Amino acid sequence: MAATSDTNTDVLTIADKTLSSRLLLGTGGFRSLDALAGALAVSGSELVTVALRRIDPGQHGSIVDVLDRAGVQLLPNTAGCFTARDAVLTAKMAREAFETNWVKLEVIGDERTLLPDAPALLEAAEELVDDGFVVLPYTNDDPILARRLEDVGCAAVMPLGSPIGSGMGLLNTYNLRLIRERAGVPVILDAGVGTASDAALAMELGFDAVLCATAVSRAEEPETMARAIRLGVEAGRLAYRAGRIPRRLYAQASTPDEGFPEY
Amino acid sequence: MAATSDTNTDVLTIADKTLSSRLLLGTGGFRSLDALAGALAVSGSELVTVALRRIDPGQHGSIVDVLDRAGVQLLPNTAGCFTARDAVLTAKMAREAFETNWVKLEVIGDERTLLPDAPALLEAAEELVDDGFVVLPYTNDDPILARRLEDVGCAAVMPLGSPIGSGMGLLNTYNLRLIRERAGVPVILDAGVGTASDAALAMELGFDAVLCATAVSRAEEPETMARAIRLGVEAGRLAYRAGRIPRRLYAQASTPDEGFPEY
Amino acid sequence: MAATSDTNTDVLTIADKTLSSRLLLGTGGFRSLDALAGALAVSGSELVTVALRRIDPGQHGSIVDVLDRAGVQLLPNTAGCFTARDAVLTAKMAREAFETNWVKLEVIGDERTLLPDAPALLEAAEELVDDGFVVLPYTNDDPILARRLEDVGCAAVMPLGSPIGSGMGLLNTYNLRLIRERAGVPVILDAGVGTASDAALAMELGFDAVLCATAVSRAEEPETMARAIRLGVEAGRLAYRAGRIPRRLYAQASTPDEGFPEY
Amino acid sequence: MAATSDTNTDVLTIADKTLSSRLLLGTGGFRSLDALAGALAVSGSELVTVALRRIDPGQHGSIVDVLDRAGVQLLPNTAGCFTARDAVLTAKMAREAFETNWVKLEVIGDERTLLPDAPALLEAAEELVDDGFVVLPYTNDDPILARRLEDVGCAAVMPLGSPIGSGMGLLNTYNLRLIRERAGVPVILDAGVGTASDAALAMELGFDAVLCATAVSRAEEPETMARAIRLGVEAGRLAYRAGRIPRRLYAQASTPDEGFPEY
């Protein structure tokens, strides 16, 4: 029997949506639709990203059918957009196609790093919020930008741990802590997760959720990794709530001679 | 519903014992026997350490009753021993008291760091193996010493991640990898775990199990942390088996334009 | 006798200025003008920052006299500016006051972290370049922003290692490498240096120069630290040019049995 | 002009020897005797290691001539010895050959990692001290073992930063700090240095000296790297003495509004 966590009462609320799962899944990169369906099922994810550019939403036998059968909510992204204008346009097309005003906003700075373009991201976010979108921006780990994205009305902020698909984990936990500490909206780690411990660490920093794509879809066994990262997210969340011991420079015996009753 | 893992078939074998759980729990430092019992139950641990020095095994209403009711196997340790001679003597007394020839061997170098004394540890290990003990030594992260401990017949090696009770996690993953890579017996991370991601990371390095004490017993909510670390161990084990993506210096889109079918 | 480095021929060129020293010094935070003068002399720095807000350039017996006597060039900064408009105005006042069109551009996002505000920084940089300034922007470690700053005509980019005055060194060497790799203008590490090894590391990553302020001015012995960091910069520059050995996972004897002549 | 450091009065004393330079150089791995001579000259090193096994001390035109001309003191090592007995024997032969009772003691645990064998090292150290040697043991980063080596009479301890020739720098600064903090004899970082900042960091931790071999001999330009590492050692030593600023989680302006006189 695996451990169970009391996730029932520890829900995540983004805008008007309430989620039991704190793992968001990206749908790109799977070797087949079956692999996607399998990973999705074990992940427990309730909110998954899709890229409009790859999908014809009306086509049957497509990824949309898979997601529909899984009963998950779609979060269209603007992957592949390199300007604010292009991202805004893509968001609007996705709103039509998927009948949702939620968007994971990406405005990419260059193809090699896929890092976000900060000024263009802020500009696009502001425009989409004004147009009634629920905007979840993929951003770098800049605490100032995160704050400004929140200030223009984003429903969450989604800083990266490291570049998309790099699997390098959380490169700058200092900045990520700062973002978490000062945010008034949910903070979701997006990009960089390579394995379960990365996801656990993000949650232990107080992040509200984790989004994974490549780490699952390109693992040797995507389904097993989906389960691993799901458990990692749950483990990290519980550990955050449990109140960890402080780090100490010197040892402390678990059985000191004084200070509490011997039994 | 929490995720389930197929731990049924992925068992851990140490000497002649087969365990379903890869989490070992230390019993020291809990605020009460009830706290211990609660953490033990959710941890799923099947093998727990006890310090002879703190316990009168014959006394009722004691920690031994708690462990007995939990149905776990005891692993006596030689905590507090500073010489090979003292550790060997303590191991023999524990064998009598707890009616088991298993021992977690500790020979400590000083009180401040509680780091092991390498030469004395090797000497005690050899003597105890010769005397018929199943010896699981608490060692530092020295790959050469780990190999020598295995060579004298230890049933597992238990390197530290960082000092006992420090909660600093895994300070030298390079050495820990080396130990794992070259060991022919189970390798169990002992000491240094502060939170769930530390446990997950150890398992992702290929460790066979993790032992926690202070991280659970001194957490603000020991029971919640026991569950967190249990899930962390399971997450890390699954991630190890799933085959993680490689770390890359540059980004890789989860939805590249070429290389596999569009759907 | 201390080592000498052939810095004579390894000069740094920013816009139309050629510098022998790769260490820039900030002038704030010293306990006295004498302490500043002493540190400045041993640092070898030829370009030092001054904050207009703290200085009345016409006043005798002031910091300006000290810098004048030291024969260094002034680089006015816009410390304390929180908007593009304020930074631009301050730059223009500094141009009048110090009779230089060079400016170290700072647009700060908040008082607690003193991190730069990316969109406002880019806006101010563009405006100042258009107005004929030689702009050296203090920026975060975002490779995309660094590129955009270069694209609008900045004469150098000055990414941080960690927040101003934090002394935390280089938190994200991955991003710093990316910035270095793609920049066509000099890259100067600004902020975060706490000690000599931080400065050396920045230079080993290929950075063209290092700016220090707090690390020197608030050290217990500023003059000794100025000398230390000067040597650190020189050491790192030489190491960069010397071509370091690769990192290896396994040992390599310096005296292997094969591969080159025994002597 | 390069910076000069007041190394004149900051000497290093090991046993009865007083050294101005805190950089020890290994002589193995150079592409030619000329390369060795060049690197040696710029390094400023006064104490260099030689491996008896590679050298016929009586042969002219050999490495010994080079070292003789350089006026440096020889420190024979026992490289290539895998047992205490072999190391002791080699040390005695070296004493005859080089007419010095100093020895850098190496007892290696395996060929792949070249990590020391702790129990065998301690045994050999004790025996050599009893026989009148001045023993400088190459050890791992184990604080307990370092203390025991000092207790048996070693004149210094030489912990590694990472495996010989790996260039991975200082993997476990926590343990290295512990060793430094508790040692009553000089502590010399031996092995792992890959570049100048590694050497500076070791000195900033309070180490008394640094030994380099591969980092210099196998650099693309050994002479330039020798100069770089020499400056790194000096920089780190000065920084240690200068008293660095503390690390802070938040920014601190170098020009705060309060707390010291405005000028």
UniProtKB/TrEMBL annotation, chains A, B, C, D:
Domain Thiazole synthase ThiG: 13-256
Pathway: Cofactor biosynthesis; thiamine diphosphate biosynthesis
EC number(s) per entry: 2.8.1.10
Main localisation: cytoplasm
InterPro entries xrefs: Aldolase_TIM, Thiazole_synthase_ThiG, ThiG
Active-site residues annotated for this sequence: K104
GO molecular function annotations of the record: thiazole synthase activity
GO cellular component term of the entry, any: cytoplasm
Annotated binding of 1-deoxy-D-xylulose 5-phosphate, by residue: G165, A191, G192, A213, T214
UniProt subcellular location: Cytoplasm
Any single GO BP term: thiamine diphosphate biosynthetic process
CDD domains xref list: ThiG (cd04728)
Record keywords, A-Z: Cytoplasm, Schiff base, Thiamine biosynthesis, Transferase
Organism domain of life: Bacteria
The keyword Ion transport is assigned to this record: no
Catalytic activity: [ThiS sulfur-carrier protein]-C-terminal-Gly-aminoethanethioate + 2-iminoacetate + 1-deoxy-D-xylulose 5-phosphate = [ThiS sulfur-carrier protein]-C-terminal Gly-Gly + 2-[(2R,5Z)-2-carboxy-4-methylthiazol-5(2H)-ylidene]ethyl phosphate + 2 H2O + H(+)
Record flagged with keyword Cytoplasm: yes
Summary of the function given for this chain in its UniProt record: Catalyzes the rearrangement of 1-deoxy-D-xylulose 5-phosphate (DXP) to produce the thiazole phosphate moiety of thiamine. Sulfur is provided by the thiocarboxylate moiety of the carrier protein ThiS. In vitro, sulfur can be provided by H(2)S.
Subunit-level organization: Homotetramer. Forms heterodimers with either ThiH or ThiS.
Family of the protein in this entry: Belongs to the ThiG family.
Protein name as catalogued: Thiazole synthase
Organism of this sequence: Solirubrobacter pauli
Gene: thiG
